[in-house]
Each structure stands twice: as C-alpha cells, then as structure tokens.
Amino acid sequence: MNVPPFSPPAAPPLQRLIERAMASAGGWLGFDRFMALALYAPGLGYYSRQDRFIGTDPTRSDFVTAPTLGPWFGRTLVHPVRQALEHTGTDCIWEFGAGTGDLALQLLAGLGDAVKRYTIIELSGALRERQQAMLHAHAHKVQWLSEWPEAIDGVVLGNEVLDAMPVQLLQRSQGQWHERGVVAAAPGAERAWAWQDRPSSARPPVDIEGEHDYLTEVHPQAEAFVRSLAERLLRSPHTGVVILLDYGFPESEYYHPQRHMGTVMCHRAHRADSDPLADVGLKDITAHVNFTGIALAGQASGLGVLGYTSQARFLVNCGLGDWMQQAPVAEQVAAQRLIAEHEMGELFKVIGFHKGPFWDALGFREGDRTASL
Length: 373
Prior knowledge:
Blueprint: H1 13-24, E1 29-30, H2 31-40, H3 72-88, E2 92-96, H4 102-111, E3 117-121, H5 125-134, E4 142-145, E5 154-159, E6 168-173, E7 176-184, E8 193-199, E9 214-218, H6 220-235, E10 240-249, H7 251-254, E11 265-268, E12 271-273, E13 284-286, E14 289-290, H8 291-300, E15 304-310, H9 311-317, H10 320-324, H11 329-339, E16 348-355
Parallel strand pairs: 2-3, 2-5, 3-4, 5-10, 10-14
Antiparallel strand pairs: 1-7, 6-7, 6-9, 7-8, 10-16, 11-12, 11-13, 15-16
C-alpha cells in the first residue's frame, strides 16, 4: 500500500496573512503591526469575528464594558452629554467604537429630541450589524461611517476605544533600548510566533529610573487618533467637546520603575492573560492608556483639557450616587461595579477636551486631577 507523504495542516487564514506581512517586512514585524492585524485584519481579525465577544456571559463573550452592565452608565452620561450639547449649541453626537450599541441606545433614549443625529464610526462589520439591530428604533437618527469625515462638530464620545489601539513595545535590556517585534517561531514549536528584540532609537516619553530590565509601551496610534480628532473639530464652525473613558494612568504612574512588565493584556471568556502570541485572532489584545500623552496630543493640536478624573468621581459628579440610593438592591450591586475602587471606579479614567473657551463641565467639578497629568 502506498502511503502518501505527511503534510502539515494548512495554517489558518489569519496566520497566513501575518506570515505574508512578515515576509514583506523582512521577517520581523513590530508588535504594533502584529496587533493591528490580529485585531483588525478585514474578515479575519478578532474584531471581524461574527460572534458576540462583548457581554456578561463568559460562555458567549470575552469581556464586559460599562454600558453592558446595565442602564446606569448610559443614564448617568446623559447629563454631562446634555450639558455639552447645550454648551456647543449642537444636536449631534459622534461615538467611536460603539461596541454593542448599549451606550448609544441609553443616550438616545435619555436625550430625546436634544439629539438629531447620532453618528457611529465603527470599523468592525460584526459590531456594526449588532448595533444596527440594537438601535433599530432610532434608525432615523443614527448613521454609520467606516472612515473619518472631513469635519466633526458637537459632542464626541469614546468608551474603551484608546486601549484597543495598537502599541509599540519597548524593552530595556542591560541598559539598552530595543523595540520588541514578532518573528516566525522555530520549526516544531508549539505556537506560530516568537518574540525578537531589535535595537531602537525609540524611547518612552520619560526616563525610567534604575538599570533593571524594563518592558513598556508607547502609544503613537492613540495620540494620532486624538490629533486627527482635533483637526476635524477645528474644521467645524461650531464648538466641540470630547469625552474619552478608558483604563490607564498619568505618565508618572504609567512609567513607574516598578511597572517593568508593561500593561499589554489579553481577554478571552472573561479570563485575562499576558500572552498576545497565543490564540491570535481568538482573543482581545489591549494596553492601558497613558493619559498624559493623550492630553498633550490634544493640546498640541489646538484643544484644551476640560478635565481629567477617575470614572467613579466623574459618575458621582453626574448624579449616579443619588440615583443608586433609589434603585433596587440588585441594580445597586450592578451599578457599584462602575464606581468601586477595586472594579472600574479607579482604574478607569475620564478625560475631556474642549474647542473654544473653557467651561465648567459637570463631570469634572469635584476631584479633577488635571494637575497630575
């Protein structure tokens, strides 16, 4: 009997795409490029998957966001957003990366006629379909874009958008800085990819004390996002407001000498791990946000910082605590996750930008930490 020669199974399409990109780059991909392909490769990356990866059920989702915990997050944001609409004299909201559509639904229901147009800029076709189903009752107000418009006016929102933007990895070894990239693993290895560091002139924005080995991230894409946002706001004849919510730190904490392992994390089935080279395309990859860099990018592009504070303080300033006292116990427990220090309350931060004169924004009236940036 003739036995055909053994041939290994074909690599998954995403792996083949990364292999081609790696070959075109000379066999080494910077982690930012690898992360971009793993998350956003059209039809193949994690955010192009057709299943439900955002939610509270670990059998059907990978992670939870504040709007999916219940109605309290969106109901609370109604108040600072309404104030911002009144201040700008507009009736337009722009949301980047609207996730499941829960926040948009909560805001549209709470703001009523104060909003005439709600624009969602969404790269994921899978999420866009989910949002369209969620927001069908408001279809006359909502529009979707997959590319940046020429100008933006009104109120801009981004909840957990910055953390999913690709980051560069920098590694200090024996006093020398390198950029960490990805190469093909050796034949017979358990996984397809391996790390490889290359000497680099890139540096973190501050000097890291000590001489110990140190891994961290820099965020050129997130900062470029803020600059692009500022450019389009400045093209509009109206004033504008930006509110961004995400997990992260100011620069002094982000690049603390003890934070020597970086902040890149992966999420799958509500479990976290720190290995982005495993199960590529099947799990989320994120990094914490350097809010000092975000603030400086906005200021350098002509925007002013409206405020910076913890999510807990922002939501309490906007009335969440008062409403929780009137809610059933089960709802109080769910809403508590939004402000508890060991949950989202302290790790998550809120930064606001304004075009035009500074004004007294509701969410930053108490506990503003702008001076810490």
